[in-house]
Amino acid sequence: MEYCKLGKTDISVSSIGVGTMLWLPNRNLSKDDLFKTYQKCIDNGLDFFDTAEIYGNGTSEKLLGEFMKKDGRKVKIATKFAPPSRMNPLTQKRKNVSKEDPAALMEALDGSLERLGVDCIDLYQVHMPPRNGRISEYMDVMAQAVKEGKVRAVGVCNFSKVQIEEAYKALKNHNIPLATVMAGYNVIRRYPESNGIMDVCRELGITLIPYAPLAEGTLTGKYRSGDRKVPLQYIVTSYFGHLDLTKERNDNVPFIRRLFSKPREVDVKRMEPLMAVMDEIAKCHDKSIAQVALNWLLSADDIHILPIPGIKSIKQADDNAGVAGWRLSKEERIRINHIEEQTR
Ligand SMILES: NC(=O)c1ccc[n+]([C@@H]2O[C@H](COP(=O)([O-])OP(=O)(O)OC[C@H]3O[C@@H](n4cnc5c(N)ncnc54)[C@H](OP(=O)(O)O)[C@@H]3O)[C@@H](O)[C@H]2O)c1
């Protein structure tokens, strides 16, 4: 495994993380199997786990807490505070403070610490831009949490360039670096390259954590044969992303065209030329398509990128650990980028 630092902090984590958004035991995914997956991740050197208070309304955090205690080995945890937000209309209820008050962050943090069974969170992130716009005040509360020893590093998710700059400045007043920015970024979702997110991360020395680095599984090639259907839930979420209600994409496609077209990521035929090229490159390295998709992120120039693929099985824990220790060549990246641009 390779290890890296979170932004300008001295917190060292594996260069591939583990997304636990779907660590919600059900009929097809038992708690026991998830524990085995957790242990396999650590065996393979993957020691950075991403969760959030809203994943299964605390279930993912509770499960991680239970696993950490049972396994006993030290891991690094990233979790997230959910402010009132346009992206998530179902705002979390708070007991002691109004949910609109930035002090709600401290109450949420205490809840996360309790569910995780730890005294300190390695990376605490604001999950979405607060609808009340009080970014600086949330960062003041974050700084307070760092001073109290409850948080080691601070991050934000789904923020625009301007919002990231505001958070950075507010933390700087407390001599705390903004360590990470989380944004949707993968081979077929490349908006951070043009909407200023990657520029600001480069300029300020912030680690970019791409979520859905495998485009929720599309970039593993699993839908290519037609045997597996794209899940309805993914079709719906992709369609809403495709409508670009949050103006993240900024790629000048008229709204009316978006409304009546299919999102590319769920259009298996349209994706095939890209999949074929990634497959060919994967074979040259004796790797899987998923490993190529994740390595494409690791091998980006001049910027630190830390992907956190969702891992649900021992096999995926092995496969995703195999993304470290090698890099795609510049020519291979250019080839992937070129064919991706042609499928737009
Ligand atoms: N901050 C935010 O707003 C935000 C939003 C979304 C996600 N996230 C974070 O990002 C993490 C990752 O995103 P995600 O889970 O939505 O999407 P993802 O990482 O793009 O895709 C994960 C899915 O890909 C499949 N997979 C993973 N590794 C594989 C491998 N090596 N080979 C084949 N298939 C593989 C698994 O699906 P199957 O087992 O079903 O095939 C898995 O559930 C989340 O867990 C969460 O921590 C954050």
Write the layout of secondary structure elements.
Layout: E1 3-5, E2 12-14, E3 18-19, H1 31-43, E4 48-50, H2 59-71, E5 76-81, H3 104-116, E6 121-126, H4 135-147, E7 151-157, H5 161-172, E8 178-184, H6 197-204, E9 207-211, H7 232-243, H8 255-259, H9 268-285, H10 289-298, H11 314-321, H12 330-342
Helix pairs in contact: 1-11, 2-3, 4-5, 5-6, 9-10, 9-12
Summed up:
This protein has 344 residues and is α/β, with parallel strands linked by helices. It is built from twelve helices and nine strands.
Describe this structure in words.
- It is a single chain.
- It contains twelve helices and nine strands.
- With 344 residues, it is of the alpha/beta class.
- The protein has a single domain, classed as TIM Barrel, CATH 3.20.20.
- The two termini are 34 Å apart.
- It binds NADP nicotinamide-adenine-dinucleotide phosphate.
- NADP nicotinamide-adenine-dinucleotide phosphate binds next to helix 11.
Order of helices and strands: EEEHEHEHEHEHEHEHHHHHH
The total domain count is: 1
**Biggest beta sheet summary:** 7 strands, parallel
CATH homologous superfamily descriptor: NADP-dependent oxidoreductase domain
Which architecture per CATH? Answer: Alpha-Beta Barrel
Tally of alpha and pi helices: 12
What's the number of extended β-strand segments? 9
C-alpha geometry: globular
Question: Beta-sheet strand percentage?
Answer: 5-15%
Low-confidence stretches: none
Strand order of the largest sheet: 3-4-5-6-7-8-9
CATH topology: TIM Barrel
CATH class: Alpha Beta
Q: Helices and strands: which structural class?
A: alpha/beta
- Write down the Rg: 19 Å
- The helicity comes to 40-55%
**Overall average residue pLDDT:** 94
Calculate the terminal CA-CA distance, rounded to whole Å. 34 Å
Bound molecules: NADP nicotinamide-adenine-dinucleotide phosphate
